[in-house]
Write a structure and sequence with these properties.
Length: 117
């Protein structure tokens, strides 16, 4: 079964930066979303990037987060700068695509980002 693999989460201080990564076979074919969910919070889509690299952002992260992709490498990234404690959450990449085992929704396993003040 094809899986999305997301990684890059860590514990950092406020103001620092992190870069999350997401990969899967054939990911270059797909629009990829980044979501986050804080403890006891609702899931929030923070970014979406299309196959050409055009990205949109939630108001809460616009200007601080940048999504990008390396299509030949089947990688999608979320560069997070000027992190705030309220960015603390589990971050997931997802896509609705056919990565090789049929068109369906794929989710990464999640990567934890913790920002301390």
């Amino acid at each position: 079964q094809v899986r999305l693999l997301d990684s890059g989460g860590d514990s950092v201080q406020a103001g620092e930066s992190l870069r999350l990564s997401c990969t899967a076979p054939n990911l270059y074919l797909c629009i990829v979303d980044w979501h986050r969910q804080a403890p006891y919070g609702e899931r929030e889509r923070v970014s979406s990037i299309n196959q050409q690299g055009y990205a949109t952002y939630a108001d809460s992260v616009r200007g601080r987060f940048t999504a990008s992709r390396d299509n030949p490498a089947n990688m999608v990234y979320l560069q997070m700068t000027r992190l705030k404690p309220e960015d603390t959450a589990m971050y997931y990449c997802s896509t609705i695509c056919n990565l090789g085992d049929g068109r369906r929704t794929y989710w990464g396993q999640g990567t934890q980002v913790t920002v301390s003040s």
